Amino acid sequence: MSLVEIKNLKVHYPIRSGFWNRITDSVKAVDGISFNIEAGETYGLVGESGSGKSTTGKSVVGLEKITSGSIMYQGKDITKKNNRKELDYNHDVQMIFQDSLSSLNPRKRIEDIIAEPLRNFEHLSKDEEKLRVLQLLDIVGLDPDALYKYPHQFSGGQRQRIGVARAVATNPKLIIADEPVSALDLSVQAQVLNFMKKIQREFGISYLFISHDLGVVRHMCNNIAIMNRGRLVEIGTRDDIYNHPVHIYTKRLLAAIPETNVNDRKEHRANRLAVEEIYRQQQDKYYDKDGKAFPLVPISPTHSVALPKEVAEQIIKQEGEVKA
Amino acid sequence: METTSDFLNIKDVNTAFKINGKYYDAISHINLTVHHDEILAIVGESGCGKSTLATTIMGLHDPSETKISGEIDFEGTDLLKLDEAGYNKFRGAKIGMIFQDPLSALNPLKRIEDQISEVMTYHTKLTAEQKHNRVLELLKEVGIVDPKRTAHQFPHQLSGGMRQRVIIAIAIACKPDLIIADEPTTALDVTIQAQILDVLRKIQAENHAGIILITHDLGVVAETADRVAVMYAGQIVEEGSVEQIFNTPKHPYTRSLLRSMPQRDNQNDDLYVIQGNVPSLQKMPQIGDRFAPRIPWVKPEEHEKNPTMHEIEPGHEVRCTCYKSFSFPDQVGSVKA
C-alpha cells in the first residue's frame, strides 16, 4: 500500500457574478488527478505557474477544501475530519513553504518558531523542549545562538533551513515542499537540497516535491508527475520522463530548460523551436476539444501518458523509427 | 553617429553606500567594456553587486547616500559627470532598462499604449499618429500576437510573459544602443523564459545594440550570452567568452558555482556546497582574495596579497593566482586547472 493515494482529486473555485451574485462558473484549478506517493520516496510534481500544483499540495496538507475525490493516507480518507484526528494526520504531515520570510512569524524568536509544532502535538517539559530544538538546529546546521534571534537576522538560505527544522520537528512521515529552493541562490540551493536528502535517508521521510525547475526535480525525485491546466499529462519514473517523454507538453518543458553545455547551444535551440512548432500545430491532437488533457493511459508499468491509446502508440512507434 | 565597436567603457568604477554614516563599497574597481552586437552576461549570487553595477550605469543612485568614483564612458560622454537633466537625455533614449518584476515596473492605471508612447514623448518629436503606429510596430516586434488589442489593455489584464514583453517594448522604443536587462526572466516560467530570451536576441541583432544581461541563472547565460563576467563580493573575478567560461572555467568561484548546479551527471550524488556566505558590505575583506574564506583549504601563500586580473588567453581574465593550483578537496590531484 502506498503512503498516500490521491484519487480523482478536484478543486474548483466558484466564480460569482450577475445580480444575485450566483455561482455562474468555476475555475477548475485541479480537475481530476490521481497519483500515489510511496513511503520514503520523493515524488515530483512539476508544472508551470497556474497549473494547479500548489493547490494540489495544499489539498494534501489540508489547507484547501477539496470539491471531490479522495486523499487516502494509510488507507483512510483524510478529507474527513474524524479520520484526520484518528490518524494524527496533522502531526505526520508537514509543509515547507517557498517564501521563507513570510512563512516565519517576524515577532517570534527561532526557539518559539521551531517549538510551535512541538507545543501543539507533544507535551514536553521546558528542558526537554529546549533540548529538542537544539537538536533540530544541529540537524539543519545552525549554531545554538540562533535560538534567541529573530527571522530577519538570518540569510535566505538559513531561513529556509529554519523552515525545514520546523517541518521535521514532529518527526513527520510526509513533507509537502512547495518550491522550497526557487527563491535561493545556487550555492544555498545546493545546501538545502543536500540537507533534504540527508534527513530523508536518516528518518525515511517522504516528500511531495512541488517545483517548476526540471533540473532540481531531476536531482531530487524518483517519480515525477507533469501537471498542465489542472490535469496530469504524464507520470513516470525519472528515466521515463527525462529520456522517453511522450506528451508534447512534457517535451516542450524539457526543451525549454537552459543547458549549460555551450557547445551544443545551437542544436538545443533548434530542437526547442522545433518542439514549439509541433506544439502549436498539433495541439488538438494532444488535448480534447475543450482544451483539457485526456485521461492517463499506461504505456509501460511505470509510465502513463494523457493520450488516447492509439495516439500514444503511434508516437512511440514514430520515435522508435527515427532513432533506428 | 559614429559606431565604434566598444561604445561603453567602464573604468575603475566604485560605488559605496552610506550605512550608519560610513561608506562601504558595494562594487569596487569594475572595468568592463560592452561592444555593439553582443550580449554581455553578468553572473553571481545575490549580494555580489550585479544590480548595483546596473543602477550605477543608469545613474539611479541617490547622490546623498552613495559615493561613486571612476568613469563610465558611453559613446564619448562620461555618464558619471552628468547632472540629472543630462542623464535624462540618455535614460530611455540611448540606454534602455528591463526590470525583473514587470508588474511593479508598469503603471497599473495607464493603458499599455500610453506607457510605451510616454518614452517617445520625452525623447522624440513624433506626432500622435506616428507614435501610435510605432507602438503597434514595437508590440509586434516583441512577439505580441494582437498588438491593437494589447495596446488598449491595462497591465493587470496581461500575463507575466506579456508584461515582460511590454517592458522590453518600452526599453527599445527609442532604439537604444545599450539595453540593461536585470534578471529579465527570473519571475517567468521556463517556456516563457525561452521566448523572452529569443526576443532579446532578435532585438539585439536587428538594432545592433549591446545588451548587459544580469542573471544568476547559469543556464540562461550559457544559452544566451556572448561574453560573461562573473562577479563575487563586488569584484569581477573572471571574464571571458561564453565558451571560455563554461568549457575552461578557472576561478575557484566560477568552478564552484558550476559544480553546485544540479546536472545530468550528478543526479544521485550530493551537490557541491560552497562553504560560508557572501560577506555583507560592512564585513567585506579589504585586502587579499575575497573568495579565500570560502575555500579555506587553499594555503594563504597561493593567494595573491592584492589580487589583480591576469590574462590567461586572449579575452579570458582571472583574478588572483590561486586558480593555478586550485582543486576541490574531494578531487585533490585529480583535476587541475
UniProtKB/TrEMBL annotation, chain A:
UniProt GO MF annotations: ATP binding; ATP hydrolysis activity
Domain ABC transporter stretches: 4-254
Biological processes per GO annotation: peptide transport; protein transport; transmembrane transport
This protein's UniProt keywords: ATP-binding, Nucleotide-binding, Peptide transport, Protein transport, Transport
Superkingdom: Bacteria
InterPro entries: AAA+_ATPase, ABC_transp_ATP-bind, ABC_transporter-like_ATP-bd, ABC_transporter-like_CS, Oligopep_ABC_C, P-loop_NTPase
SUPFAM superfamilies, per database record: P-loop containing nucleoside triphosphate hydrolases
Keyword Cell cycle: no
A Pfam family hit: ABC_tran
Entry's family note: Belongs to the ABC transporter superfamily.
Protein name as catalogued: Oligopeptide transport ATP-binding protein AppF
Organism encoding this protein: Companilactobacillus kimchii
TrEMBL record, chain B:
Residue ranges of every copy of the ABC transporter domain listed in the record: 8-258
GO function term, MF aspect, one: ATP hydrolysis activity
Species this chain originates from: Companilactobacillus kimchii
Cross-referenced InterPro entries: AAA+_ATPase, ABC_Ni/Peptide_Import, ABC_transporter-like_ATP-bd, ABC_transporter-like_CS, Oligopep_ABC_C, P-loop_NTPase
Keywords assigned: ATP-binding, Cell membrane, Membrane, Nucleotide-binding, Transport
Gene3D superfamilies in UniProt: P-loop containing nucleotide triphosphate hydrolases
Protein name, UniProt field: Oligopeptide transport ATP-binding protein AmiE
CDD domains assigned: ABC_NikE_OppD_transporters
Places the protein is found: Cell membrane
Pfam families hit by this protein: ABC_tran, oligo_HPY
NCBIfam families found in the cross-reference section: oligo_HPY
Transcription recorded as keyword: no
